[in-house]
Amino acid sequence: MKKLFTLFPVLFLSFVVVHAQGYNPDNINKKAKALFAQGLERADDGNMPMAMGLVQQAINVDNKYVDAYLALAAMNGNLKNYANSIKLYEQAFALDSVYTLDYKIPYSTNLAGSGDFTKALNAINEVLSKKPPKNENSLRSALDKKKNYEFAVNYAKEHSAQTYVFAPVNMGPNINSTESEYFPCFTIDGKELIFTRRLRGANEDFFSSHLVNGQWEPAQPVPGDVNTDENEGAQNISQDGQWLFFTACNRRDGFGGCDIYMSFLEGNKWSEAIDLGGRVNSNQWESQPCLSPDKKDLYFASRRPGGYGGSDIYVCHLQPNGRWSDPENLGPQLNTAGDEQCPFIHADNQTLYFTSNVWPGYGDDDLFYVRKGPGGNWSKPVNLGYPINTIGREGTLFIKADGKTAYYASDRADSRGGLDIYSFELREDVRPFKTLWVKGQVLDKKTGAGLPSSVELIDLGTRQTFSKIQTDEKGNYLVTLPLGKDYAFNVNRKGYLFYSDNFSLSKNAPDSVFEKNIPLQPIEANASIVLKNVFFDVNKFDLQPASLAELDKLVQLMTDNPTLRIQIGGHTDSIGKAADNLKLSENRAKAVVSYLVSKGIAVTRLTAKGFGSTIPVAANKTEEGRAMNRRTEMKVVSQ
User: Fold this and answer.
1) Residue 11 has pLDDT above 60, yes or no
2) How far apart are CA 590 and CA 587, in angstroms?
3) d(C-alpha 178, C-alpha 198), whole Å
4) DSSP assignment of 189-214, as one string?
């Protein structure tokens, strides 16, 4: 009976209480008592279906058996059969509201589990006002429930206008099996899914599936050497599909506890994993890695000393030498004295999702998000709300680049066994920024050879670097672009003129996928580039602030190549008088030269020349053509 007493402590305390008026356990039918006792024994053995059947028989024999109603209600609640549990509790309350008052606490839990937080709050308030628990721990637990229900009620009021329907869809037999599947993650194009499967209830391995003609192929163990006889779990694949990070515990090459490992895609196989080393890992628990879309930041959870308590979320930065920096705690604006875990940084590189058991919510671990501001600081955590969050423990979440399709693992009623992977549509107000992405190759304009280069994305509104990545050794790159902003897109490599382009996404969203190969022009006499991120107002020659980020790149080019001499050429379309256009183009070229001089570039290395509309690069018959003709060029005079 010891186990049962642990399961239903309040229930069994009541067996010795005899209410002077109303329900009296001593008056219950003997046969019903015998069936009830047998039911408790089966529950103690772990045979809940038989236990529930016997207790139901006891009720059938004596329909005034309050303790049997309460026990059966508790059993249903344990199995998350909230509706049945609520009905049984209410039947017990109807028989004797005084004897059963203590049970308004577990009753409230089942109401909250069903989503009826208002009734749950009323129930817990009734107990606290009439008969608060005398045990200090029980009282604290009841007060915590009250706080959680109040949060839920207020949250519902603040979001009452929304008509969101939470409808998770099982990903089907090609992904889910009779084993448990969890930790789903995708490449940026959404065509490859990698997840953890627990085999035979013990060994964890990675499986993958590819989307072909709109259907997921049957999942197979990932090829290569990353899966072993030991456990591998909590994995995250880089958005370009080339790196895989995961957690493994107590390995011979580890630093103690659980460590973070990394595997590389070599051809079509994953390499043997390597431990990320003593900077990232400690002799404590490190787990749940998540790589930023630009592959520069690695977020993970750790219980290492020096945190704010429990598990905290940390980040390491990839340095130019290819090593990871020392971990940085994300700070008290996110981490608490409790547990923060399961970090997921979206493809927008600004929205971070995680779980916490301390920030205000529904109880246990809830899902939250924060957004990274221009200075790198994180916003206050925002709860994702019911029904994504429940009174239970929420865990891993993955959101695709579209910002609305989310995936998680759950043991819902239609699970094929253990945890299954489900997809659902994320509520609009808790979505990350919609994200576009650009991929391509940086190459030598003359030879066509791929060039390892630095690719930088600058927010033209703030002039701050939004993302900076290094291509691979063949010059391949991938950059994600949140909508709603205008960006300067710069590529640099020593010995070449820098490349610049801009993506105007603040008003009109283009297709979600760009493929852009970037030919770099070697620095040599007469080589030229268009400065695509130098802007002027109509018929004016004052530099717009958005131009300065690109001009600063030109300053850096001149600084890195101290003998370089250049000509700045201004060009206009053919609208208006030719003389006016010539003067305007000359003044614009001079404005650029003046800025370069103000930044310390010797005027003797600079020439300004206006060409008006005399050298068009497109027809002036359309606005698109005229826009291409209105440009500022940089030409190498000598090096």
Assistant:
1) no
2) 5
3) 10
4) TS-EEEEEEEETTTEEEEEEEEEETT
CB 208 within 8 A of CB 259: no
- What are the counts of helices (DSSP H) followed by strands (DSSP E) for the chain? 12, 34
Contact yes or no for 378/372 (Cβ under 8 A)? yes
Closest CA to 585 of 597, 573, 596, 594: 573
How open is the CA angle 50-55-56, to the nearest 5 degrees?
Answer: 95
Termini Cα distance of the chain: 89
Structure-block tokens of residue 583: 């003067």
Q: What does the alpha-carbon distance between residue 551 and residue 404 come to, in Å, rounded to a whole number? A: 37
C-alpha span between 281 and 527 (Å, rounded): 49
Helix, strand, coil share (%) of the chain residues, nearest 5: 25, 30, 45
Q: Is the pLDDT of residue 541 over 60?
A: yes
Helix (H, G, I), strand (E, B) or coil at 498: coil
Give tens-digit pLDDT for 238-280: 998 999 999 999 998 999 889 999 999 999 999 999 999 999 9
DSSP 521-538: PBS-TT-EEE-TT--B-T
What does the buried/exposed string (b/e) look like for 421-442 if buried means 16 or more CB atoms within 10 Å of the residue's CB? Answer: bbbbbbbeebbbbbbbbbbbbb
Least confident residue range of 139-148, 189-198, 354-363, 434-443: 434-443
Residue 544 CA to residue 632 CA, distance in Å, equals 13
Distances (CA, A) of 216 to 172, 210, 234, 302: 9, 6, 21, 34
> What does the alpha-carbon distance between residue 65 and residue 77 come to, in Å, rounded to a whole number?
19
Minimum mean pLDDT range among 26-30, 401-405, 434-438: 434-438
Q: Would you say residue 217 has pLDDT above 50?
A: yes
Give burial (CB, 10 Å; 0-12/13-18/19+) of 386: buried
**What's the average model confidence in pLDDT over 417-421?**
90
Task: Report d(CA 460, CA 541) in Å as an integer.
Answer: 19
Helical segments of 101-193, H only: 104-114, 117-130, 136-158
Tell the residue number behind the tokens 């599909």, with chain if given.
241
Q: What span, in angstroms and rounded, lies between the C-alpha atoms of 602 and 564?
A: 11
- Cβ–Cβ < 8 Å for 358, 148: no
Going by pLDDT thresholds of 50, 70 and 90, the confidence category of residue 392 is confident
pLDDT interval class at 18 (50, 70, 90): very low
What residues are paired with 263 via a beta bridge? 244
Sheet holding 405-410, edge to edge: 169-170, 420-425, 405-410, 398-399
58-77: pLDDT as tens digits: 999 999 999 999 999 999 99
Say how far apart CA 10 and CA 102 lie, in whole Å.
7
Between helices 104-114 and 66-78, what is the axis angle to 10°? 40
Beta bridge partners of 295: none
H helix or E strand, kind and range, residue 227: none
DSSP state letter for 179: S
Domains in the chain, start-ordered, CATH in brackets? 2-158 (1.25.40.10), 169-430 (2.120.10.30), 434-522 (2.60.40.1120), 525-639 (3.30.1330.60)
Residue by residue, what is the 3-state secondary structure of 356-372? ECCCCCCCCCEEEEEEE
CA distance 405 to 425: 5
